[in-house]
Amino acid sequence: MNICSPYLEINLPAIYHNAKVIVEKGKEQGILIDGVTKVSLGDPKIARVLVKAGVFGISDSRIESIKRMKEDGLDTQFTLIRLPCLSQVEEEIKYADVSLNSEFITLKALNEAGERLKKKHKVIIMVEMGDIREGIWNKEELYFVIGEVLKMENLELWGIGTNFTCFGGVIPTEEKYISFLEIVRDLEKRFNISFPMVSGGNSSSISLLFEGKIPSGINHLRIGEGIMLGRETSYRKPVLGARTDTFKFVGEILEIKEKPSIPWGIIGEDAFGHKPSFKVRGIRKRALLNFGRQDIDPEGLIPETFGIEILGATSDYTVVDISENDSLKVGDSISFSLNYSALLQAFTSPFVKKIYKEVDL
Ligand SMILES: *Cc1c(COP(=O)(O)O)cnc(C)c1O
Q1: CA 211 to CA 190: how far, in whole Å?
Q2: pLDDT over threshold 60, residue 1
Q3: Is the pLDDT confidence value at 274 over 90?
Q4: Ligand 1 centroid to 291 CA: how many Å?
Q5: N or C terminus: which one in the chain shows less Cβ crowding within 10 Å?
Q6: Atom 7 of ligand 1 has which residue's CA nearest to it?
Q7: pLDDT at 28 over 80
Q8: Active-site residue 38, yes or no?
Q9: Has residue 43 got a pLDDT over 90?
Q10: Is the pTM higher than 0.70?
Q11: Lowest-pLDDT range, 118-132, 191-205, 267-281?
């Protein structure tokens, strides 16, 4: 089969397997797993596989992606995991069943939109535990926001949540979770309530999950990368029993020439405003591939084809050294595995075709 490249091969059986491994591990400990589809822009085929594997719901960062999955007919609980936009509250109420929140003004607008649309919406209030991204840090503000949400007729206080290892790189430890749970218990006592959902972190909590060390009281995690790439993100280790062959990126050789390894002439900046630097290696055999920064993050590709070294990329070309591989010719396909950043870029690029390895469920 001749598929026009570049393309991203999506291995649905492998994704299904990974989701199942993590969902089962959660089940043993009373922890529900939401499958996070944001890296795939809410790909409905992937979402469907996650639902079949038993995830509690689907979480995505964009309301457009949630809309896409809903319009494709997927029936599950959808959570918007980026804070809602004040300018989009109606769409958010319409398409998301749950959202993560930290601002009173937005909660108020969501409540009013719920009134207009005659729809009840569930909210999870986010607590800042040190990663310095989203969430309320100040205790008085937390009391105020919870107290107000309890009075809002179109919002249901569905839970309390926190996030780690996204901006600050803070690793979730047992101690972090215990401090988080102290805040949760304090709120429950103060307002005489019980949160249905106590939502911990993301794929950086997988190693704690597999060691059985997530303190009881946390009953929900939101997992993207762990399922999609079979890796936890605190230490970047493969998830036990998971597959890492979930995605493959394939491009094609456009030019092969022997060229000096350093440029000649007066050196200014490259196309992206960086001063390039090169290793002196004499004349090398190099190939130009048919994709670039519009399609991938060159730092996030790992060649699967033997004897290939990535030198860099411009918008539309990736330059590789192929001196160690004698068999390559113009038109040959070159395949790579991807890290999260390259995968995100590949999904985002309209130039990268998406090819599915189907799963029979
Ligand atoms: C992206 C995200 C997740 C999932 O993160 P992974 O590392 O891909 O598991 C979970 N929660 C929030 C709030 C997120 O933004």
Answers
A1: 32
A2: no
A3: no
A4: 28
A5: N
A6: 203
A7: yes
A8: yes
A9: yes
A10: yes
A11: 267-281
Does ligand 1 come within 6 angstroms of the Cβ of 220? no
Mutation to probe ligand 1, out of 202, 220, 247 (largest number of atoms < 8 A from CB): 202
pLDDT at 269: 87
CA–CA dist 256, 321 (Å, integer): 10
Distances (CA, A) of 297 to 57, 250, 327: 29, 14, 26
**Farthest CA pair distance, the chain:** 74
Q: For atom 14 of ligand 1, which residue has the closest CA?
A: 81
Helical ranges in 152-233 per DSSP H: 174-191, 206-210, 225-228
pLDDT at 360: 87
Asked if residue 203 has its Cβ within 6 Å of ligand 1, the reply is yes
The topology (CATH level 3) of 11-228 is TIM Barrel (3.20.20)
pLDDT tens-place string over residues 225-238 = 999 999 999 999 99
* Per-residue tokens: 271: 């196309």
DSSP string, 221-261: EEESHHHHTSB-SSS-PBPTT--S-SEEEEEEEEEEEEEES
Give distance in angstroms: CA of 90 to centre of ligand 1: 24
- pLDDT for the residue 2: 62
**Rounded mean pLDDT, 248-254:** 97
Enter the CATH code of domain 247-357.
Answer: 2.40.37.10
Please state the rounded mean pLDDT for residues 196-224. 98
- What is the Cα–Cα distance from 190 to 152, expressed in whole angstroms? 18
